[in-house]
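Researcher: I'm preparing a figure for a lab meeting and need a structural model of a single chain. I don't have an experimental structure, so a prediction will have to do for now. The sequence is pasted below. Please return the structure as tokens so I can convert it later.
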Amino acid sequence: MDVTGVLNQVFVGLSRTVILFIVSSGLSLILGVLRIPNVAHGSLYMIGAFMAFTLSKLFGGGDMGFWMALIGAPLAVALISLVAERGIFQYLYEREHLMLILLTFAFSLVFGDLVKIVWGGEYKSVPVPYMFQGFIPLIGGLPFPLYNLFLLVCGPIIAILLWLLVNKTKIGKIARAAAVDMEMVGAVGINVSWVFASVFVIGCLLAGLGGVLVAPTVSVTLGMDHTLIIEAFLIVIMGGLGNIWGALLGALIFGLSQSLGILIWPQFGIIFPYLAVVIVLIFRPTGLLKATW
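Model: Understood. Here is the structure written out token by token.
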């Protein structure tokens, strides 16, 4: 275990952190405003990855295919979520959380079957765009993939844009107010239903975006949503329910502990991020940052 090896694992962990944060931030946004524990969030992430495969192939792969997938796949996921929200979810916001969990779990099963019908059960792969193929040398000359560097750039940009959306835009301020007192916001003439729909769609769009960004780094396959949704919920709980910056901090801890754990104890590296969650919740049962619940 030398310095260059540790540094490489840190950068790998940060790349994983970006994906975890993007997906978890969407889940945290929905939890914070709509109070919906969206179990189907992972399925939307999976649909985003499969849509990335289709769009990349449709536009010939390469750079054009990747950028079209990066734009089109999250929008397709957003459209699916809008249909689901307007068709069903908008009538159930006042129901108990257990019912919402069961409903979103049912949606995850439906989405899983739809993915199998449309794309089949075979593994899919999305090529890394030409402009991000290759490596750059880190300290000590250790090669680091250019695509992972692209992910490291995307993470802070998305975090800043999300913060601006929530804190500096009209819809973000209304959404935060509606999360505190929905009746009062509705009393001043604001259509709270469409505000909630917008928040739900944005949160699901982030799930689709995470699926697109991860697609060139993994095999796109059925079941890729299962592990991700567990990790996303743990990150949201660890960071503080509904807290976007908490999601970022939780993703950072989860991603780095996973990456460094593999370096420290390869056979049992998978337990380190879950151990980190346990330790955090022992000392901070409500999460690292203030929860909105």
